[in-house]
């Protein structure tokens, strides 16, 4: 089988074996799922709500909201059914019914069928003979008012019924079966009925327009609440999966199943560090990926600094289902993710990469003065990790020596003058310096001076340590040049984790891609050896500068060890 050329492709099997798309632990309290459904889902889209016993309420209310424009309801006929094993109709005064001024029991559940506080033209039966036997309870009702009930524009509660909960765990349905729903034009002096629902079906080409994002069915704990704004929080269907893309710039990929999103709209993902270090809000609608034949919405987050592997961050997915916002928030983190991976013995061949990656982050934290926690020894010496074969040696033995030294000619930054690159005697572009940027993005930053950058490019050539070209040339245009006081700079950040020993060549070229400056070669290893030499020969460096360089060398050393672990893996594994 062909060997992987991408660290991500090689590592994805590891993450699937540690339950890449893990399911969160279920809550301890009892959960009753109430499905509010209808035979006219176009007008009353169904929804499911989890009612927790921890809410302290022994009541559940099911409300069917709708919104029509410029019409008022004229008549209706419907049956609402429920399961008596789970729910019972609440006959308490002023809950679903009340006595009117004439001493007659009148319903409250048809919330729109009221004239000056009194229901008009309503016939209802909460215990029809046709449903006397069995566990299915029902309410049958019809209503007529030739003057028309209230105009339904704006969110209107068509029907709302409150039940007592008899069984607070499991799943049950409340279903609205509408047979007839007629309207009259608002302001008309004569009755000219038009129907939106007739014979239990939506009438085609009905002039009555309904607003889908304000029409829905919903269940919630407690009595009827006209101000209730339905929100589905912790929606288990919007489960968030995580994967690591192990490049020099650590990337975290998040996934949400397309099938779970279904017809919901406005799909977004928000990622926020606990200390407000970084917040990202992303539209996921057009970010799609397929993994093992399953379709997902995918977002790759590039804001994880290697030195912030310790951090956890909140990932929230939100979507809209016919006016009902759905949310799910999960806590994610690189350290916690890798620690979980290390509990699965199937991942033994990745242990070295995982631990070297954590050491890389730990060295970054020390360099940045961010966290004292080493990410490794403080927790990996405890259960369940102490019983993992081969891990103890990785933790306790200093994995400190680079596997092979680079050639002496590559130790330092240098202008290249060989068969491929010739020295230019009077360069239009002048080299000013190069540096390794260690921040939210690990990049090479090439500095140069040029009088007029218009139409110019910086050509970037990428070779491996054996001199083989890795990719086609990259041309960074003048529009992407960074202004640096008296000169310009460009950033190159396309190295993978297994390419830290690779050589990168920078050349300023003209509009025809011909060199107008000398070529400079650089590598991460070059930077490491420069700093290592600076540490061993500090000269007049102050104590604080010595500490800085010492921590920087440790950081770059850990980076190189991690990169070498990936190189070793790729050389010895084919997937």
From TrEMBL:
UniProt xrefs under SUPFAM superfamilies: Carbohydrate-binding domain
InterPro entries: CBM2/CBM3_carb-bd_dom_sf
Signal peptide: 1-27
Keyword Signal among UniProt keywords: yes
Superkingdom: Bacteria
Annotated keywords: Signal
Molecular-function GO term, any one: carbohydrate binding
Keyword Signal (UniProt): yes
Record-given protein name: Cohesin domain-containing protein
Organism of derivation: Ruminococcus difficilis
